[in-house]
Amino acid sequence: MKLTNQQIAIIDQTLIDKGVIYDDIKLELLDHIVTDIELETEESNFDVAFSKAMYKWERELEEINPSGKFAAPRIVMEKFSTFFKGQYKFLFPVAAIFSFLIAIITTLYPEEFVYNILKLVFYSVYFLLCLGGIISLFFISKTKSKTISGKLIQKSWWFLVLQFCAIYIYSSSYSRLYRHYNNEPFLGKFIEWFMPCYFFLLAFHLIMIAVEHFTIVKKYKLV
Length: 223
Hints:
Elements: H1 5-17, H2 23-40, H3 46-56, H4 58-61, E1 63-64, E2 72-73, H5 74-108, H6 112-142, H7 148-154, H8 157-176, H9 178-182, H10 186-219
Antiparallel strand pairs: 1-2
Helix pairs in contact: 1-2, 2-3, 5-10, 6-8, 6-10, 7-10, 8-10
C-alpha cells in the first residue's frame, strides 16, 4: 500500500525530532522506512507498521555523545567518523607517494629551472584549489539545504585561511632555499615536500566534498 503525503510527512518530522537534520541522511532513511512500512501495511495498519519500522532503525537513530561536546544520532556520528578516518588513511599515504615522486624528479633533474617550473605548477594548482574551496563555501552558505558534506565544508573555513598561509610560507621558503634544497639528500627532499603535498591533498579533498554536496542537492532537488 502506498503511503499518503501526510504519512510521509509524519515520518519526516519524526526523523527531524530525533536529530536527523541533514537532508542526505534523512532522505536516505526516509526512503528505507517508507519501503519497510509499505511492505508491512499489507498486513497491518500504518501506526503498527510505523512502530515496527522505527524499532528496526532504533540503533541507527540512537543518540550518542562520544566526544562529550554534542549529541547526535549514531548514523550521523558514524558518517562524520567515516570521513575523518578515511581522510587520514588516504591522505598520508598519497602525500608520501607524491613527495617521493617529486623528490625523484628533482634528484634526476637537479637543474633550477626544472625545480622552479615544478614549484610554479604545484603552487598554482594549490592556489586554485583553495580559491575553489572558498567559492564553494560561499555558495554552500547560501543554500538552505543541510548535508553532511556541506557541514564539513562550513566547518573548514578556518582551514582554507590556513591553506593560503601555508602557500605563502612554503612557496617563499622554497624560493629562498633552492641551493640548500639541491644539496639535500633524497630523504631531506622527501621531507621538505611532504607537508606541502599533504596540505595540497587536503585542499583537493575539500573540493571533492563540495562536489558531493552539490551532487546531493541536485539529486534530491534541494534548495
